Amino acid sequence: MRIVSATLAALLLLTGVAHATPSRGVTAKILAQWTAGDRDYVVREITVDPGGSTGWHHHDGTLYAVVKKGVLTRTMSDCTTNFVHHRGDTLIEEPAHVHIGRNLGTEPMVLEVLYVNPAGTPLSRDEPNPGCSFE
């Protein structure tokens, strides 16, 4: 039994533990919220400072957003950055897609967001960096 315990402890130390990546330079304020049926609806204004990021995360529901100011760069869990959204652009984030939003610009980036989540779930769930080199 001691050998099994020692082996397990060594494996845990060698492999490390994945930790969520915190947001940086992000502020948010709720503009409206309500529940209808089995869904929570929340409207938020999110501001990301230059050089800031949301941290890696996913949503349990669908998110609809419009960029009010600045530029949002989104990177997916496969480390591809195929999504760059400018002022006036809209976007939809589907449930369970791990991603990070970053402000690579020189001015604050502002999003207005509608979250449509299963009732009682958080707006987002933190995730560890999937191995992308910039975070």
From TrEMBL:
Q: Does the keyword Repressor apply?
A: no
Against InterPro entries, the record matches this protein to: Cupin_2, RmlC-like_jellyroll, RmlC_Cupin_sf
- Residues of the signal sequence? 1-20
Signal listed as a keyword: yes
Entry keyword set: Signal
Domain Cupin type-2 per the UniProt entry, residue ranges: 46-111
**What is this protein's name?**
Cupin
Q: To which species is this protein native?
A: Lentzea aerocolonigenes
